[in-house]
Amino acid sequence: MSVAHILGFPRVGAQRELKFALEKYWQGEIDQAKLRSIAKAVEEDGWRAQADLDLLTVGDFTFYDHILDTSVLLGVIPPRFNHPKGEKVSLDTLFRIARGRAPSGEDAPASEMTKWFDTNYHYIVPEIEKGQVFKLSSDRLFETVKRAKGFSSQAVKAVITGPLTWLKLASVKGEQFSKLELVPALTTAYKEILIQLEASGADWIQIDEPILVLDLCDKWRAAFKAVYQELAKISDKLILTTYFDELADNLETIVELPVAGLHIDAIRGDLANVVNQWPGDKILSVGIVDGRNIWANNLAQSLTTLTPLAEKWEGQLWVGSSCSLLHSPVDLNAEEKLDTEIKSWLAFGIQKIAEIKTLTLGVTDGRSAIEEALTKSNNIHASRETSTRIHNLAVAQRVAAIKAGDDQRETAFTKRSQIQANKFNLPLFPTTTIGSFPQTHEIRQIRRKYRLGEIDKQQYHEGIYDQIRYAISEQEKLGLDVLVHGEAERNDMVEYFGENLDGFAFTQFGWVQSYGSRCVKPPIIYGDVSRPKGITIDWIKFAQSLTDKPVKGMLTGPVTILSWSFPRDDESDQTSAFQIALALRDEVHDLEQAGVAIIQIDEPAIRELLPLRRERQADYLAWAEKAFRLSSSGVKAETQIHTHMCYSNFNEIIKSIANLDADVITIETSRSDMKLLNVFREFKYPNDIGPGVYDIHSPRIPTVTEIETLIEHATQYLPKEQLWINPDCGLKTRGWDEVRAALKNVVTATKSLRQRYQKAL
């Protein structure tokens, strides 16, 4: 018989129960016992969802982040958090590492946060030092396995992050050294983890090593052989798990590892290559149901793929999700307002589990056992393929008509920058913010009442105008140089634009975890994209009417809208990106015509979509750069184009970022100690840049001295004339008291340095 399982389940709850509990705990509204009780209920809801599967997957639940959990398990706690060596790590210490503050313990700068491979999930980067000591410092994983054994009669599969993936993702602090020096000590710690997992009753151990889909050098491949030779001495129940891309040249190494089985991502991976090389006497787990997108599985096609595999791996074939379902919403059945036709094309977490169970039954008992499900699936896919709602001839013709030069500014930056300097007359180190201001209860109530019909359109507009007035007034009081309208009308930087473009559908409860308690509700791109009418013009015009200072028009870029939506699987990402770019180009034109002189087009996801394998990166970067320029290039020389990027490792694509030809780019640097600026020692960035000096994902208020230090550090890498001063990201998740205090310090630090540099001249 084949075995049905998943790699992980969404962990914030169907109604975001964990999110709200975390935030109440951080604010002192509930105690830790209540938080743990809610977390336990959310975790066990995920276990119940797996009741029809053969394996119960546990250990994937987390209070904040699974990589941080691994660091805590290993006892790798940065010294600044003053954790007593040898003691168990408290939940508040975990929160302080993640966000800089918790209900107990002293504030300290939070650890760096960055993207999990090519997803919009963020993990907390482990911090390691030369001679790092590993000591198991948490029992939560082992206690979870014990609890799961009593919860269900299913075999229990525990999930752990693999040692080499954890090590590869870690950041070296202090004296530099080769991470591989830590392999022996780390292997010893993992052997102890395996011992305790088996003692806790784990029937299988899913050991996630997604770095096996990256380009690895021979030393890292050799490390895999050394590590897994040792781990195999402890457990013969290891399922080596990969996802997100192809194994390619790493497969030869994997085949030699003494593990019980291998999981392969059949959606994005190289299944045919694995089938040819993986031994028939070992478990092969095939991730045939997409864990990252929401389109219903084509059961007939999947069954055709799986059936011959079941013959080769008789009794050893597992059927599962391509990756953890944490990247999917929980349950499509909750969507009562979603268009019926579009809804029929979709599958969320609960539905994906049903697809896995159905396919496993079909593999085991034959097609006749699932004939009804196959017929329904065939009808669904036929409906989608023939729907008249998907294709728009005018959009296709416009994309086809793109010609050379459409993505280029008419005037070079060297000339534009002088024209813009004369127009805006900004001081040294101009100060600005990224776009959003706090999304207060009052703002959410205004949007809620309008959505429910309790207020009319005019009342809604007046309510939002009041919020814009307040945001402009506060910025002027603070003394910022370039203002924003605050984005009070926007529920989300992607969903808002999707709601105003054709080709998008939206959910009520399609929440996906981005980091910690932060959830997003990605829109669904189901058809060709176009802009039926203007989106932001009236809001920005109103904001500009309130002040003599420039107010930035705020847009989300084409690659980010694509990346942070659930994309089509019947069309290339490039085509979708160009469609979105042309829609945004119309918006940029209208903003300029309305007198908006600075327009910011955010692209924080441009690094996120970068293919994991180097051989495919150049092609992606070429069309991603072009998509941005298509949206931004149709303006006059005096119109200043900004873009923003955050929480990704941009150094390796710095030339592509320069190729965007934005007049100003703002980036995250404060949480990562400005390490992103190292690239500018060798690469002369041509345009202006704003390295963030305020970590907005932490409630800590940076001091004036801290901000001055960061700015001065930036001047060691870039000419001071190129530097802008800004936070790392938008401020919607913070409160006004925090924002005022932090931005006051930003402005104070900036003015102090202006005086210092002017005296030096």
Automatic annotation (TrEMBL):
Alphabetical list of InterPro entries matching this protein: Cbl-indep_Met_Synth_N, Cobalamin-indep_Met_synthase, Met_Synth_C/arc, UROD/MetE-like_sf
Name the record gives this protein: 5-methyltetrahydropteroyltriglutamate--homocysteine methyltransferase
Any Gene Ontology biological process: methylation
Record keyword Metal-binding present: yes
Top EC class for this record: transferase
Cofactors demanded by this protein: Zn(2+)
GO molecular function: 5-methyltetrahydropteroyltriglutamate-homocysteine S-methyltransferase activity
Domain Cobalamin-independent methionine synthase MetE C-terminal/archaeal as annotated: residue spans: 429-751
Pathways per UniProt: Amino-acid biosynthesis; L-methionine biosynthesis via de novo pathway; L-methionine from L-homocysteine (MetE route): step 1/1
EC number: 2.1.1.14
All copies of domain Cobalamin-independent methionine synthase MetE N-terminal, residue ranges: 4-312
SUPFAM superfamilies according to UniProt: UROD/MetE-like (SSF51726)
Reactions performed catalytically: 5-methyltetrahydropteroyltri-L-glutamate + L-homocysteine = tetrahydropteroyltri-L-glutamate + L-methionine
Active site residues according to the UniProt entry: H697 (proton donor)
Keyword vocabulary terms for this entry: Amino-acid biosynthesis, Metal-binding, Methionine biosynthesis, Methyltransferase, Repeat, Transferase, Zinc
Gene behind the chain: metE
Annotated residues for binding of L-methionine: I434, G435, S436, E487, D602
Family to which the UniProt record says this protein belongs: Belongs to the vitamin-B12 independent methionine synthase family.
Function: Catalyzes the transfer of a methyl group from 5-methyltetrahydrofolate to homocysteine resulting in methionine formation.
Residues holding L-homocysteine: I434, G435, S436, E487, D602
Cofactor note: Binds 1 zinc ion per subunit.
Binding site for Zn(2+): H644, C646, E668, C729
Domain of life of the native organism: Bacteria
